[in-house]
Amino acid sequence: MSNSAKAEAVxxxxxFGMGPRPGSIAALGSDPRGALIAELDRPLAxxxxxxxxxxxxxxxxxxDANARRAARxxxxxxxxxxxxxxxxxxxxxxxxxxQPDGQAQGYNEDKDAAEMAAKQAADAVPDPGRxxxxxxxxxxxxxxxxxxxxxxxxxxxxxxxHFCVSANRIQSMSGAYEREAVRANALGRFVDLLLxxxxxxxxxxxxxxxxxxxxxxxxxxxxSSGLNxxxxxxxxxLHTLGVRTGYTQDDVxxxxxxxxxxxxxxxxxxxxxxxxxxxxxxxxxPGGQTVLGKRYEQDDVEQGRAVLRDLAAHPxxxxxxxxxxxxxxxxxxPPPALVEQMAKAFRDTDGDLKQVATLMVSSDEAWRGPxxxxxxxxxxxxxxxxxxxxxxxxxxxxxxxxxLLGEAxxxxxxxxxxxxxxxxxxxxxxxxxxVANNFAERITGMADPQAIIEDAFASQxxxxxxxxxGRAESRQQALALLFMSSDFQRR
Length: 491
Description:
Largest sheet: 2 strands, antiparallel
Strand order of the largest sheet: 1-2
Structural class: mainly alpha
Number of helices: 25
Order of helices and strands: HHHHHHHHHHHHHHEEEEHHHHHHHHHHH
Radius of gyration: 27 Å
Number of strands: 4
Strand content: under 5%
Shape: flat
C-alpha cells in the first residue's frame, strides 16, 4: 500500500471512524471510502445486550426498588416510635418534670436515632439503576472498541447526542433508550428515527411531557393544570427544523397541544406495562390544531405522528441535519457545498440516513481539509484505547474518565446535547494529560508505543511525534506523549 493510500486510510479511521487499531489500516485496503460504505450494511444490534432489560422493565425495576426502600424506611420509623413510646411509659412524670433539659435532649436523640434507622433500612435495598447504566455503558463502549472502522458506531453516537436524554433525569432508561430508539433506526429513514425517539418514554420523561395536558382536556379541566411547551419546542428547534426557520410561538403552543396525552404507563398502575409509552386521551387537548400553516384534525396519537412526519420532510430539517452531520464529522465550519449535497440527498431519498452518510464519505469535499478538528473527549478516549488493541473495559473507570473530561456518558448539560466545536472543548485538553498518563501507567507492560505507530498507524504519524516518542525517558512517558499528540487529538 502506498503512503498516500495509507494516509487516506488513517484519515478515514479518524475522521469517520473510531480511530486506528492494530491491523485496521491494512483491512481498509486501497479503497477506504468503499470500506466505510460497506460497514453501513452490517447490523448495528448489540448481540450481547440480550440479558439487559428493556427501558420499560428497567424503569419498573427501579420504581419497585424505590417503593421497597420507602416501605422499609417507614417500617423502621414506626418501630423507632414504638420503642420511644415504651421508654416514655417507663419514665416517671416526676423525673421528666425535674429534668426538662434532659427530656428535650432525649427527644432529639430519639428523633435522630429514628431517622438513622430509616436511612439504614432504605439503604439496605440496593439501587438497580446504577448497575444497569454501567452495563449499558460497557456494551456500548466495547462495540466501539471492537468495530473494524467504527463509522456506524459514530453515527449511533451522533444521533444519540442529537436526540439526547440525560441519565441525571432517567438513569435506568438512558442506555436502553439508545439501543431501542437510536441504534435500531440510525441507518434507516429519518422519519422512523424521529417517531421512535419522540415516542420513547425516556424522551417524554426528559422533556417533561408526562403531565402536560390541554386546558380543555378532561384532566386539564378537573385539575386546573397547564400545558408544558418544552417537548414541542425542542423537537422543532433542536431535532428537526433548527432555530430561526420560520416557526412561531403560536406554532410551538399548537404543537404542544398536539402532543398532550403522550405519556407513559405509571409503574404502580400496571406491574406488567409500567414504563411503556401510552396515549392518554384524558390529557389530550381536543380539536384540531394548526402547525406551520397546516391543519391537523386527528383526535388521537396520530395527530402528533402526522406533525412529526411533516417536520421530518420539511426542507429546513434536511439542511439542519446535513449541517450538524457535516460539522460533527468534517469541520467546525463545514464546506457549504458538502452541506448542500447532503441536504439534497436527504430530500431526494425521503430522509434515508444511510444514503446521506454514503454521500458524505463519497464526496471529495469531506476529505479535502486537513485533520484539524478537535476530537470530543469520548472519541479521543475510545481512539486511545483502540490503538492498544484493548476491547474489554471496566465501565466504572471508563465512565469516570469521560466525566472527568467533561463529557459524562448520557449526561449532557442541556437538551441540545454536547457541543461539536473546538471552542467548547479546547480548555479541557489539559485534563486529558492526566487521563493519558493514568492510562499509560496501567498499560505500560502490555503496550509498545513503537508498535502502535507501526501497526495501528502504519507509521503515518508526524516525524516530530516519532522523535518525541523515541526520546522519551520511559515507556509510560512515550505512550502519554503519543496519546496527547495531534495525531490522536485531531481528525
